[in-house]
Specification:
Blueprint lengths: L15 H11 L2 H14 L3 E3 L5 E3 L5 E3 L3 H5 L3 E5 L6 H4 L9 E6 L15 H10 L6 H12 L11 H10 L6 H12 L11 H15 L3 H12 L1 H5 L3 H8 L3 H11 L21 E6 L2 E6 L7 E3 L4 H5 L5 H38 L1 H6 L9 H8 L3 H8 L3 E4 L2 E4 L7 E3 L5 E3 H13 L9 H10 L6 H10 L5 H4 L4
Parallel strand pairs: 5-7, 6-9
Antiparallel strand pairs: 1-8, 2-3, 4-5, 6-7, 9-10, 11-12
Helix pairs in contact: 1-15, 5-6, 6-8, 9-10, 10-13, 15-18, 17-18, 20-21
Length: 483
């Protein structure tokens, strides 16, 4: 009699609901609207919920023609003091007692900036990737996770294990090898050089793409220079390159001409630079209270229609037609549920950001405090991957300007007083010091570190150098002007 063994194995099971929710959360506002319109065109079981108009009376109060909860769902509010303890747990207090009041209001307003619709660089890359014959839903989900972890310049500076962990939280079991394969596909999309680890790798990828179209020897030489003498090239040590590579000055000049045509910031050119940003939130501050308004532009609310309920019950309707309607009905329910989950996620995220970054919203960017996505994940109950998707490409309009939600996350360094200072603020300090320097005697990294220490910021020279390079600012000797 053969042995009977039980074997346990893990498999990736992705429901349509999971994929749809993830996709909609990733979309910025304009693209969400287009996606909803597309779904309305495709699915007769969906219908648009018409907007109910609001007006303001002479005293400034709102006149509502209907039930507010029916129109917009509930208005969420909470209060917290400066230690982050919910006021509800401590009893009600007045503003004069130092309680910070946060109001989350998901009603539509008319004060948002209008914009020209355009694809973000991430969306364009995903669309292009989806057209490749060997790329399926699984690879697109991996690509979406990779793109969600890019920094502002399109680099994947985190280890691949971060991407793997994010995918596993969404029940997608992968290893770093599979992630790396998708990452490499992204490298060679248009624009090339996205999701690489550093500038050298980006330039080499772009050169490789050019070499497929042009077999000129100067492209091959440019690639060799970047691969084997990158530091010498970066620091203009051309004599050393000539000596070590045994090439003529004309050859070097021709190769450098090729390199200077490469784009060190392809990620910045992914969208239409003339387009305005449509913020997802408007945060205002009045009488000690922060108020966030979710910009749903409520004419985009959808619901499952009941127009076909009777038809589906009629036995005279062919079985095939009833099956089609049931499929569309299930799809409509999943779509409206995903829209609601997106809205709920965004509300909880902005609520958490208002809690952690209260001083920023009240006093401005100089009050930005260190914050990591893990903190917001713990406060909201979502995983890191969800937070990453929620903040990517979403914007908030404040009294100090419009910011992407990713802006509110940064590392920290200690000050002399023992407080933590955001790395974004430190970078701004470095930029301001360099912009104010004497061009004939530019400040080196040691001097910058010393000047920052005078501001109370404890920072090593190598850390200054790292931040300066991240801001694409050359070393002091390359900033020096003869006159």
């Amino acid at each position: 009699m053969p042995d009977i063994k039980l074997q346990q194995s893990q498999r990736t099971q992705l429901s349509f609901q999971q994929i749809l929710t993830s996709q909609l959360l990733q979309l910025p506002l304009l693209h969400l609207e287009q996606r909803i319109y597309d779904e309305l065109q495709d699915n007769p079981m969906l219908e648009l919920v018409e907007e109910k108009k609001e007006s303001v009376d002479d005293s400034g109060g709102e006149i509502d023609d209907g039930n507010e909860d029916d129109m917009f769902g509930s208005v969420e509010r909470f209060e917290a003091d400066k230690t982050g303890v919910d006021a509800a747990e401590k009893g009600k207090k007045d503003d004069a007692d130092g309680v910070m009041q946060f109001t989350i209001d998901n009603r539509p307003k008319e004060s948002f900036i209008q914009a020209v619709q355009h694809d973000s660089c991430e969306e364009k890359l995903l669309k292009d990737l989806s057209l490749q014959h060997d790329v399926g839903t699984r690879q697109l989900l991996i690509a979406s996770e990779i793109l969600g972890n890019l920094d502002d310049d399109g680099y994947l500076s985190d280890d691949l294990s971060v991407v793997v962990e994010g995918l596993e939280r969404n029940d997608i079991d992968v290893d770093e090898k599979e992630v790396k394969e998708v990452q490499k596909k992204i490298h060679y999309l248009d624009p090339p050089g996205i999701a690489v680890g550093n500038l050298q790798e980006r330039l080499l990828v772009q050169l490789e793409v050019k070499m497929h179209k042009n077999k000129s020897s100067r492209f091959a030489l440019a690639s060799r220079i970047l691969a084997t003498h990158y530091d010498d090239f970066l620091n203009n040590r051309y004599e050393r390159i000539l000596k070590r590579m045994q090439i003529e000055p004309q050859e070097l000049e021709s190769a450098i001409d090729v390199i200077t045509t490469l784009d060190p910031h392809p990620f910045a050119g992914g969208g239409d630079s003339d387009a305005y940003i449509v913020p997802d939130f408007l945060v205002t501050y009045e009488k000690g209270r922060l108020t966030a308004v979710l910009n749903d532009r409520s004419n985009m609310s959808v619901q499952v229609t009941g127009a076909y309920d009777d038809t589906m019950k009629k036995k005279l309707v062919p079985a095939e037609d009833r099956k089609f309607m049931r499929q569309k009905l299930n799809r409509a329910k999943e779509f409206t549920s995903a829209i609601a989950m997106r809205r709920n996620t965004l509300i909880k995220v902005i609520e958490a950001l208002m809690h952690f970054q209260y001083d920023f919203f009240v006093a401005g960017p100089e009050k930005l405090v260190p914050l990591v996505m893990k903190d917001v994940a713990e406060k909201t109950g979502f995983d890191l991957s969800t937070i990453s998707r929620a903040v990517n490409g979403k914007y908030v309009q404040t009294r100090f300007g419009t910011y992407e939600l990713k802006y509110f996350f940064s590392g920290s360094l200690p000050t002399e007083e023992g407080e933590e200072l955001s790395t974004k603020i430190i970078k701004q300090y470095i930029r301001e010091l360099i912009e104010a320097e004497n061009n004939t005697k530019p400040l080196n990294d040691d001097k910058l570190a010393g000047m920052l220490e005078e501001k109370g910021v404890k920072i090593a020279r190598r850390t200054v150098a790292k931040y300066r390079e991240q801001m694409q600012i050359p070393v002091a000797r390359l900033r020096k002007k003869i006159f």
